[in-house]
Structures are given as structure tokens and as C-alpha cells.
Amino acid sequence: MWGSLSSCIRRHKKKLLFLGGVIGGITIMNTYLKRKFTEWEANRTNELCNQIKRSNHYESTMVTCDSVFMSCVAKIRQIVTKTLDVDEIVTQVKTNPPNKIQLWEQLKVYVFTQALGEMYAQCLLCMLLKVQMSILSGYVFTTHGNNTNPTEQQQKYMSRIEDFMLNGINTVLNCVKRVVRENIKSIPLHQKLKLQDVENIIRSIQNSILENGDAFLQETTGYIMPAGSSNDVNDEFLDNICFETKDVIECPDFSHVFQVCIESGVSSLMDRLSECYVFLSDDTQTFVNPHDFSTPLAKLIPIMHKVFCEHKPAEQGSFVHTLLQLEPLNSFTANIYEAFSQKCPGS
């Protein structure tokens, strides 16, 4: 029996060796694949956990960002009404001074600048705040657990938005006022305007600012991200994050999303202007479609200012709530956070 077995093995030695190699190879491959699958599964689990952490961190950041922005909205209104003091001009007009016509010309510029300037300031502040907080929270996420304490640097970085509130908003108003004056100086106070005519004026102002889009953004965002480095000696982190922010602000995507926000703001502004025409048309003896109704510019200006003052910027359903929900803006800031939450600081 053993002899025949030995003989069989000798006859099929090569086959048995081949079969053993195949079985051994399969066993080794199986072990290797199991180990790799386990590693892949662990990496995939870690990646999913990391994505969940990033998502929760980003959502928490945006809730804070929206809250900060809403707290600044009333401050923007205060700056607008203080810089463009319509009430003071109205008081002067009531005294029937010799320069009454000049005061009325100034009044029409101020009223249009109030409405457009506040909207431009709201859009710009919202975008700057979201960009800053997206970049900073991305940096914080990558450095979480390190020994460094970025709290002081975070405060220095976010304090740049205070410079925009103090000086940048006035710069926005001055830029808008220049364009408004150029676009409406040729429109006499006695000219009758329909709602469509007023929209054409608003669109011409919007297009004029758009034509100088890069210059407008550079002039109005210079307070938040100055061209030079920080004044803090050896503060490499602050210099890096400021330059990163400046690059984002100057990129074409920022300009595109800003124009989307402005377009939404113009639509909201036209809704308010339609209220003016509804109010004015109600004074007629017979029903008149507000879109067919025309009124002298001098009669429209006080109503525009009245509606501007009555609309509280932070009230429910106002433009700022629509602004915070704009999909292009939220996608833009989410992409910024995603990029900075996966890169090493200073890289």
C-alpha cells in the first residue's frame, strides 16, 4: 500500500507540487485580501466619521456666521441713514430755501443710494463674513487636537470684519452714490415714471457697477484684506490665512456669486418699489394697474424713503433672510470650507 502511494507520488510529483503551489498561493492571497479589506474598511469608516465631523463642524460654523450677520444688519441700517441723512435735507427743503432745487436733486440721489447702498453692503458683508468663517473653521478643523492655541490669532483675523463695518460700508455707499448720481442726474424731477421706468434706472445703476466690478470689489474689500502683510511680527499663520482670504475674494467665483446676490437684492428692491406704486395708485379715483400708473419722480421720492424706513432689515421675510438661503452662496462657502478643512495650515 505504502509502496503504491510512494510510486503514485513520484509519478505525479510535478502535478502535486503545482497543486500545492496553487493552494498555497490562494491561501496567501486570501489572507492578503482579507487584511487589505479590513484596512480599507477601517479607512473608509474613519473617512466617513471625518466627513460627519466636518459636516457638523461646518453647519455649526454657518449657524454662528448667520447669527453674527443678522446682528450686523441693524448696524448697516444705522450707518446708511447716518451717512445719507435724508431727514436733514427734508427739513431744509421745508424752509423753502433759495437752493431748493439743488436740495431736491441731492434728495433723489440720497434716496436711491439708500436703497441700493444698503443692499450692496448687506450682500458684501454676508459674503465676506461667510468666506472668512469658512476659511478659519477649515484651518481650525485641521489643527484640532494640536498643542497650538489659535484663539488669539482667530480674534485678530476676524477683527478685520470690524474694519469693514467701520470704514468699508461707507466706501460701498460712496461708490454706489457716484454711480447713482451719474445715472439719474439727467432725469428731471417733474418727469413721470412708471414702475418699469424705475426698474430700468435700477438696472442701469446695477450694470454700471458691474462694468467696474473688479475695481468696485477691490475698493470696498480693501479694509478687510489689505494688500500688505499683518503688523504682527513673526505671525506666519495670520499672514498666510489673510493672503488665502485675499485670493478667494479676488477669484472669479467670488465676483460671480456676488452678482447672484445682487440680482436677488434687486428683485427684492423692485418688490418694495411696487409697494410705492400700489400706494400712489390707490389715491386715484378709479382703479389703475400699478404697472400702468405713472408718477412724477418728485412725488415718488418721499414714498420711496417712507417704504425704506418702514421695512426693517432684519424682519421675517426680508431680503437678508433670502440672502442667507441662496444656494450659490452656500455652495461657494461649503466648497471653501471643504478645501481648507483638508489642507495643512501654511501649505
Automatic annotation (TrEMBL):
Keywords: Membrane, Peroxisome biogenesis, Transmembrane, Transmembrane helix. The keyword Transmembrane applies. GO terms for biological process: protein import into peroxisome membrane. The chain crosses the membrane at residues 16-33. It comes from the Eukaryota. InterPro entries: Peroxin-3. Signal peptide: none annotated. GO terms for molecular function: protein-macromolecule adaptor activity. GO terms for cellular component: peroxisomal membrane. The keyword Cell wall biogenesis/degradation does not apply. Involved in peroxisome biosynthesis and integrity. Assembles membrane vesicles before the matrix proteins are translocated. As a docking factor for PEX19, is necessary for the import of peroxisomal membrane proteins in the peroxisomes. Interacts with PEX19. This is Peroxisomal biogenesis factor 3. It comes from Caerostris darwini. The lineage of its organism: Eukaryota, Metazoa, Ecdysozoa, Arthropoda, Chelicerata. The gene is PEX3.
